[in-house]
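Example record

One chain of 109 residues, shown exactly as stored in the release files.
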Amino acid sequence: MSANRMRNETLTVRLTKTEKSEIITKAKRAKMNLTEFIVALTRQTEIVLPPDTAPIIIELKRIGNNLNQIAAKVNSGAAYVPDLKSVIENQNRVYDLLLNLSGDKEWQQ
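Predicted C-alpha cells for this chain:
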C-alpha cells in the first residue's frame, strides 16, 4: 500500500463461521492480511451478469396473449388454424429457455 493512500472506510459483512474461517485461511496462505486479500480478490474476479431478458420476456407475454386470443377463436369455431398447438408449444419453449437464461444462477467467472 502506498504511503499516500489511507484506507478509512469500513465495510461490514455477515458470514457464517465456516465462511469466515475459509477466508482467513486463504488470506494466510496468500500471505496477505484480510483487507489486502479481499481487495485483491474483488479486483481480480470478473463477475458475469446474466443478460437483461426482461424486454424479450415482456414481448413474449404479449405474443402469448395474442396466441390465447387466437386459440379462443379456434376453440369457439370462429377460425381454423391447422398447426396452432405447435406454435404455442414453441412459444412456451422459447419462454422457458429465456427464464433459464436469466434465472437464479450462481455468479460465474
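Notes: The radius of gyration is 26 Å.
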